[in-house]
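4.2 Preliminary Data

To establish feasibility before requesting continued support, the project team ran the inverse folding procedure on a target of 206 residues. The structure was first converted into the token representation described in Section 3, and no sequence information of any kind was made available to the design step. The complete token record follows.
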């Protein structure tokens, strides 16, 4: 994107462009359900400019019209965040639960919802003999993954406790954690369990 392109934009358009890029950098995605006007503006009016500007700062944009989202995939290591071991564990489990809910249970990608208690119970089955995050740490990790637009959590401060909070996994998880199959996921899970919590393998995420 060159300077002439910017000169052709109105002040309001420059402001929208700035909002879009900042949101993609901080949250990793623009979801129509949350930023309808900005999403529609980006998709329908200024897509070439946003693609060009995103590439300039090291982002490749995935425009998913089916699920109405724009996802930013970092192309530079400087823009990636190294997940800690317990964060990696939860991200892997969320990908698996999302994949099974869509492929086996026939749920729509935007309808994968379960409680934290249900997620914890499944987590214990997937990663036997590993120390699982306690409630406070679980809340911290869920908030991190929510900030990165992988999930949305309802009632995270539920008076009944974190266990009753609901997790909705977003379709973005398919692209941020791109396993080609459950078999590939199982291979990584097996290595994770074998190595243990002392030196478990991490994954990069934006």
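Position-by-position output of the design step:
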């Amino acid at each position: 994107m060159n300077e002439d392109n910017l000169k052709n934009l109105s002040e309001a358009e420059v402001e929208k462009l700035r909002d879009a890029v900042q949101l993609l950098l901080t949250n990793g995605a623009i979801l129509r359900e949350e930023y309808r006007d900005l999403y529609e503006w980006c998709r329908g009016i200024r897509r070439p400019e946003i693609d060009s500007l995103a590439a300039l700062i090291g982002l490749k944009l995935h425009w998913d019209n089916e699920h109405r989202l724009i996802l930013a995939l970092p192309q530079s290591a400087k823009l990636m965040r190294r997940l800690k071991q317990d964060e990696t564990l939860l991200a892997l489990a969320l990908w698996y639960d999302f994949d099974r809910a869509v492929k086996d249970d026939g749920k729509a990608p935007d309808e994968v919802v379960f409680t934290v208690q249900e997620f914890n119970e499944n987590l214990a089955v997937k990663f036997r003999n590993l120390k699982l995050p306690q409630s406070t740490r679980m809340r911290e990790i869920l908030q991190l993954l929510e900030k990165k637009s992988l999930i949305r959590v309802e009632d995270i401060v539920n008076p009944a406790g974190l266990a009753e909070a609901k997790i909705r996994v977003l379709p973005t998880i398919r692209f941020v954690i791109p396993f080609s199959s459950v078999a590939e996921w199982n291979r990584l899970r097996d290595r994770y369990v074998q190595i243990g919590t002392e030196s478990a393998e991490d994954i990069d995420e934006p």
